[in-house]
Amino acid sequence: MLGLPPRLSANLEQLGITEPTPIQKKAIPQALDGRDVLGLAQTGTGKTAAFALPMLMALMRMEGKPAPKAVRALVLAPTRELAKQIQEAIRGFSDGTSVRTNLVIGGASLNAQANRLARGTDILIATPGRLIDLLDRRAVRLDEAQFLVLDEADQMLDLGFIHALRKIAPLLRKERQTMLFSATMPKKMNELAQSYLTDPVRVETAPPGKPAEKIDQCVHFVAQASKTDLLIEHLGQHPDEAALVFGRTKHGSERLKKNLEKAGFAADSIHGNKSQNQRERAIKAFKEGRVKVLVATDVAARGIDIPAVRFVYNFELPNVADNYVHRIGRTARAGRDGTAIAYCSPDETGELKDIQKVLGKEIPVVGNAAWAADAMASPSQGGKPRGKGGQNRRRGGSGGGGGAAQAKPRRNKRRPRRSAA
Predict the structure, then answer these.
(1) What's the CATH fold of domain 6-204?
(2) pLDDT (tens digit, 9 = 90+) per residue, 378-417?
(3) Residues paired with 311 in a beta bridge
(4) pTM of this prediction exceeds 0.90
């Protein structure tokens, strides 16, 4: 496969990877030539292997071991879940080689991570905040790093991470290879990305922001107060299928999880109020099928790769339209089919319009609501994140569920919503 050494080829075959995906076909040869790469592809299409395999080949050719505290390649990811998933994938690719990987993320022992880094690292996968903590303690140094990868680069380069990147990037070698991969590429992010790339080659397999074609999407217009009943009804139609449910806030997601448990579903949740161990246990139970419904904030929109996820529910629409693409990308992975169901309350029609603008098409509507036609025809109020973390507090309309709600859109002044992280 693409001229990989026998050890890597054998590992890929054992993992069931026998043919390169389109993004791998386009990106790997460019990366092997030493080019900086800006890679754009839909979620679930093998972007991790696209940057990891050429990096592994280069590291396997290097002589000796990395110096104490030194790092040869750095991979940055926006969430703990994504960072852990990247490490697991790279370990699978590199099994039986001398390449040493390390993971540094929040929610784990800082001292234990510092001790592991003391022996030197070939590939370090990190979230920016925890890496800066370790840099401040002089537990790691990046001056020997010859590779920098930003996974989910759109989120890595937004205002929440740009300050961390500006602190980390200058610590790496000037002569390095940089690769940025993402499923979406907002214009502002594209401009920022150029400052980290030198004469990059842009490779893409689908227009940025477009989800996989095998995802069957639909939207229900429904009053906020009726969403839980509608979700319970829908989950009851496929009780043995894995379902991922996205909410907007930590407290709201936890409350929804408890309501689903009361309704008899094997449910769990992951969000910013959960410890790293709690999040890992929940994902493990979901992967193993002991939990059938996982309720999550956008902390899980990037970094959950569970082929069994057949359904994704947007219980609340995201304020940032691009996040919808990442959310529904948790299903229909690696060529499988999937279903994405969205619930839109009267106060969320602006977000729905913005999502459809990103998609370049309308999402099919299931059912109807008296208020929906007028609300969707009015000028969009969405498009800009509001409040901390792009969140705003809403009041759901009253009335029927399942798309039959009679409530009209409220025009009350919106109050800031707390961050969903």
Answers:
(1) Rossmann fold (3.40.50)
(2) 765 544 444 333 333 333 333 333 333 333 333 343 433 4
(3) 243, 339
(4) no
